[in-house]
Structures are given as structure tokens and as C-alpha cells.
Amino acid sequence: MNHSVVTEFIILGLAKTPELRRLLFLIFLLVYLVAFLGNMLIVVAIACNTTLHTPMYVLLLALAIVDIICTTSIMPKMLGTMLASGKTISYGGCMSQLFFFTWSLGAEMVLFTAMAYDRYVAICFPLRYSTIMSHCTCVALLGTVMAIAVTNSWVHTGLILRLTFCGPNTIDHFFCEIPPLLALSCSPVRVNEVMVYVADITLAVGDFALTCISYGFIVAAILRIRTVRGRRKAFSTCSSHLTVVCLYYSPVIYTYIRPASSYSFDRDKVVAALYTLVTPTLNPVVYSFRNKEMQAGIRKVFASLKHNGLER
């Protein structure tokens, strides 16, 4: 049973002065719209174009859906906290936000690894790609992503639900994340910290290592390309992907590998913004909008919308 006496939390957000809150509201509203619409455009383009129904683009579709869930679980309430009347979140709402955020966090990390493996097979074994990355393999990868993400989310949310929150109920953050919630708990959080540490080592560090290993093999294969233009193009793609991966994993590992007692609210709110807001906004640009096949799929979507509008 939940023994908490706290029925709601107060979220302080990123800024304390009204002027700065209004400015940040406009900035993050724009960020949310770019992230949401960009990822939604990827979902529609891939779903509506049969030429994009390949493992690479199915994984991109899954990543776009995860980014939509991640930003939508955080941003609307975050924007509400920047307004005068929207600083509180119910206990149930906070736990729901925590569940969907930890789900998307785990899913995104495993998806990065699956995407790196897909590119490894495509570049290192091009003649066997269709055999290795078959429909069954793609389904198995997505099933693994879902299973790991749900397990990770249930474990952490369940452990938080066991804690007692007897006050204060002020979260010095812009959403309900594990470290600030542990800092507010009146009961021991040692088990929570151990499980967070284990998850960070296995998911964040483990997936990051596997992703780097995959790209190591990819770089080795690229170096064997004879033409300078081909090597430059391949390295450009890999460097962009690795930049996003590093930008995502570094703050996640930094945030979750430490005990709650060492959590710095002012500094770590900015760090958390990198993997909750910046990366979902960059993913459509890095992984999709620079891809010619995705550009063609997006043009087909707009052409279809224009055609339907003219018919009406």
C-alpha cells in the first residue's frame, strides 16, 4: 500500500522570476512543437510509404514514437508550471509522469543500440542484410526494446511507490524524475539507489558500449571504401549519429550513477534538459531529415495533403 501523506507535489521548474518564466515558456513551447511535429511527420511518412517499410525505417518509426511519448509526458506539465496557476501535480500524476518517462528513457537507449546494430549489418554485411535483418529479427528487436523498457519502468516506479513522502513536497525540478523524488523521501532509499545504479550500468553504460562497438566495426568497414567521397559521406553520417548518442548518454549516466545526497538541483535541471528536450528535437534532423528516402517520403505526405485539399 502507499503510505504517503503527500497528495500533491509543487514543481518549481527552471526559473523563479516571472519575466524569465515567460521567456522560457515561449522557448520551450517552440521546442516542444518542433519535437512533436518533427517526430509525428516521421511517423506519418514511414507509415504511409510502403517503400520505407524496412528494418532501418521501422526502427526510426519506433524512435519517433518514443520521442513523442517522452516529450509529451513532460513538456505540457512543464509549460504549465511556467504559468501562475500550474505549479502543482497530483501524486498519481507525478507517478504516471515518472512511469512514462522512465519507459521512454529505457526504450530510447535500447533503440539506439538496435539502430547501431542495423547499420553495422548493412555496412559490414551488405549482401546478407536482408537475411540477417529479416521481418522476424526486426519484430524480435522491437519486442526486446518493449520488454526492457517496461521492466525498467515498472521496477523504478514500483520502488518509488513504496516510499513515504511526508513533506516537504516541493520538487526543485521541471518534472518528476527519480533523483529529486528520492531526495524528498522520508524513508530509506538505499534499495532505490542500488537499482538505479544497476540500471544505469546495464542500460546506459552497457548500451553505450555496444553502440560504440558497432560503430567501431562500421568505421573499420568505411576505411576500406576506396573512394574519398564515399568515405566522407559515410563518416558524416556516423559522426552525426554518434554526436546525438553521446549527447544523450552522457547526461543520463551522469545523473543516475550518483547517490541522491549528491544531487545538485540547479545544475542537474540543465543537464536533464539535454536528454529530455534537446535530443528528441535533434533526432528527426539527424536520423531522418538528412536522409534522401525520408525526404522523398515526407514530400509524398505533403503532396497527398495538398491533393486532398484541392479535391475538397
Automatic annotation (TrEMBL):
This protein's record includes keyword Metal-binding: no
UniProt KW keywords: Cell membrane, G-protein coupled receptor, Membrane, Olfaction, Receptor, Sensory transduction, Transducer, Transmembrane, Transmembrane helix
PROSITE patterns per record: G_PROTEIN_RECEP_F1_2
GO molecular function, one term: olfactory receptor activity
The protein, known as: Olfactory receptor 13G1
Membrane-protein topology: Multi-pass membrane protein
One GO term describing the cellular component: plasma membrane
Entry's transmembrane regions: 23-44, 56-75, 95-117, 129-150, 201-223, 235-257, 269-289
Compartment(s) where it occurs, according to its Swiss-Prot or TrEMBL record: Cell membrane
Species: Tupaia chinensis
Main location (coarse class): membrane
Classification of source organism: Eukaryota, Metazoa, Chordata, Craniata, Vertebrata
UniProt-listed Gene3D superfamilies: Rhodopsin 7-helix transmembrane proteins
Pfam families: 7tm_4
